[in-house]
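User: Could you go from structure to sequence for me? I need the amino acid at each position, not a summary. Structure tokens:
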């Protein structure tokens, strides 16, 4: 029979007068096993994670999964076994107050029913039937029985192929497309115009709410800690972005000297400089989105996908694109202290690593 005090640990961590979470006074009097509800909640706590909960024995057996359920059987994700939650938690959404246990925003990311294939104290195999997640998963303890362990160390593995047969993992070998220097193209409607900011070109790979920044083939994530919040905003969205890092002065113009002070600095020094010499990641393009490469799609389609992400934060944003006339955009760039514009052919694909006439840098 189930433990009559399954929710004791849950109640001990929460004060019903201080949290909007459901805190039942007593444990449920329910038969063993029964229900088959599951829920995945996106939890913006101190660190973004997803809580996977399976109904069993009148409670929600729970794991915190920092990067969410893996879509690919080739990759396992860490899962931390947490305290059982009451059944009422399956529909909970809201803001847990700062300073409280699990403080932060909670939303329901997916929900549905599951089939149990195997359930022991060290391995749980299920088939999930959700709106966003379908398929077989196994959660398993990672330490041998009897080893010094609090029972929290688990992993989660997808047993089925990706739901989308065309799904591909986030690429790690992308290189930015480069512009050729040239004159203004004609105002014939086939070109879009963007400001040239003169920053440090960087690709951002976002997966499971975590950001990795690459520039010149080097991992520069540790040099720009203020950009990590981009991953939290994107949540479960898996995407590769192209953009540039700039340091802006009081007038909003790029300051190359301030930016140079950030390059190569990591650790505590980078965190201090992020406060005194902050950078902004200006995102120009999307190269891979939710398991699909987008580099073969025309600029206009990629731009629409980028705008649909609605990226806006203290240290990242999507600069505007302009229809023209090109001369007016170029004049505006000069007036704002920029080194010119980049004209991009609307129908052109993204060519990783290539310098292409489809992108034309026109200096001020």
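Assistant: Here is the amino acid at each position, in order:
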């Amino acid at each position: 029979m189930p433990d009559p005090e399954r929710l004791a640990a849950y109640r001990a961590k929460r004060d019903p007068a201080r949290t909007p979470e459901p805190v039942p006074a007593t444990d449920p009097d329910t038969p063993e096993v029964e229900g088959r509800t599951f829920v995945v909640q996106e939890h913006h706590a101190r660190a973004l994670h997803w809580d996977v909960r399976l109904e069993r024995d009148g409670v929600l057996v729970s794991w915190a999964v920092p990067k969410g359920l893996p879509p690919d059987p080739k990759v396992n994700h860490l899962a931390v076994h947490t305290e059982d939650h009451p059944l009422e938690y399956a529909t909970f959404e809201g803001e847990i107050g700062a300073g409280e246990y699990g403080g932060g925003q909670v939303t329901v990311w997916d929900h549905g029913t599951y089939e149990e294939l195997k359930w022991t104290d060290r391995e749980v195999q299920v088939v999930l039937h959700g709106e966003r997640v379908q398929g077989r998963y196994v959660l398993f303890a990672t330490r041998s029985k009897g080893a010094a362990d609090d029972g929290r160390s688990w992993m989660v593995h997808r047993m089925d192929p990706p739901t989308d047969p065309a799904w591909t993992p986030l690429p790690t070998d992308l290189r930015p497309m480069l512009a050729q220097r040239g004159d203004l193209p004609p105002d014939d409607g086939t070109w879009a115009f963007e400001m040239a900011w003169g920053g440090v070109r960087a690709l951002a790979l976002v997966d499971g709410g975590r950001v990795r920044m690459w520039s010149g083939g080097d991992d520069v994530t540790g040099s720009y800690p203020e950009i990590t919040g981009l991953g939290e905003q994107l949540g479960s969205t898996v995407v590769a972005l192209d953009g540039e890092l700039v340091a802006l002065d009081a007038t909003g113009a790029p300051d190359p000297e301030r930016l140079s002070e950030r390059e190569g600095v990591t650790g505590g020094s980078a965190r201090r400089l992020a406060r005194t010499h902050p950078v902004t990641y200006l995102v120009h393009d999307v190269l891979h989105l939710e398991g699909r490469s987008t580099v073969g799609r025309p600029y206009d389609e990629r731009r629409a996908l980028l705008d649909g992400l609605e990226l806006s934060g203290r240290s990242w944003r999507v600069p505007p694109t302009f229809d023209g006339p090109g001369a007016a955009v170029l004049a505006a760039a000069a007036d704002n202290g920029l080194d010119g514009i980049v004209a991009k052919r609307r129908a052109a694909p993204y060519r990783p690593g290539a310098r292409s006439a489809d992108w034309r840098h026109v200096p001020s």
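One structural detail worth keeping in mind: The first strand starts at residue 37 and ends at 44.
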